[in-house]
Design a protein that fits this description.
Layout: E1 2-8, H1 14-24, E2 28-34, H2 38-44, H3 48-64, E3 69-72, H4 78-87, E4 92-94, H5 97-106, E5 108-114, H6 117-134, E6 138-144, H7 148-153, H8 157-171, E7 177-180, E8 199-201, H9 202-213
Parallel strand pairs: 1-2, 1-3, 3-4, 5-6, 5-7, 7-8
Helix pairs in contact: 1-9, 3-4, 5-6, 5-9
Length: 216
């Protein structure tokens, strides 16, 4: 049986990602690591190099535990996942890579939504790098959904989801592609029919890529 290690920075992604792994991949063992101090440190810029070192140490530990792949559930630390991928003998994936690739393939105007300012830059950076390597012309808008993350941390998921849907409905008409940068945002649009064909979320696309790459 294959084994996948998932590194989380919020408890909000644990149940949903594990359910998706079971749904999409099926018979696979998952090992979950959670460090919920990382987002706070990244938001304030507090000892970012130490955050980097400990995130990579989690990936190394998962490798030592015999996982076939490591998945980063957090877009904010995407650069650390890319670095770990170059260092380790097992593949390390960004949950948002497949989503960003698809956004670039569609090209045009890409609106990137996040509930944390610290997530916008890593996601936009990845999109721009992928666009350059593909010779694609894109225009990127960034939208910070104020108050949504704070609502989620207070357990007010309905408020969190409502703020995201409101922001998406406002920007979708002027966007060719809508990118929800954080895995924790994906459920906000599950029940929304507004501009559904334009909206890209990372969890499903990321795990489908993982399945393809591992030949599962």
């Amino acid at each position: 049986m294959k084994k996948i290690g998932i590194i989380h920075t919020t408890p909000a992604t644990i149940a949903s990602l594990n359910a998706l792994v079971r749904e999409i991949i099926g018979d696979v063992e998952t090992v979950n690591f959670l460090d919920d101090s990382i987002l706070g440190d990244m938001r304030t810029g507090h000892e970012v190099d130490f955050v980097r070192k400990r995130w990579i140490s989690y990936a190394r530990t998962l490798e030592h535990m015999g996982v076939d792949a490591v998945l980063s559930a957090c877009s904010t630390v995407g650069a650390f996942a890319e670095e770990a991928d170059r260092m380790l003998d097992v593949p390390v994936y960004r949950i948002d890579e497949a989503m960003c690739r698809q956004a670039v393939e569609r090209a045009g105007t890409v609106s990137v939504f996040a509930t944390l300012a610290s997530t916008l830059e890593p996601t936009v950076d990845l999109i721009r790098r992928l666009a350059r390597s593909s010779d694609k012309e894109i225009q990127v808008h960034t939208v910070l959904v104020e108050g949504a993350y704070e609502a989620l941390m207070k357990g007010q998921k309905d408020v969190h989801d409502g703020k995201i849907r409101e922001a998406v409905s406002r920007w979708a008409p002027v966007s060719d592609v809508v990118v929800l940068a954080q895995a924790s945002m994906a459920s906000a649009v599950d029940a929304s029919k507004d501009a559904a064909a334009k909206i890209l979320t990372s969890p499903k696309l990321g795990i489908e890529k993982l399945k393809r790459d591992l030949g599962m």
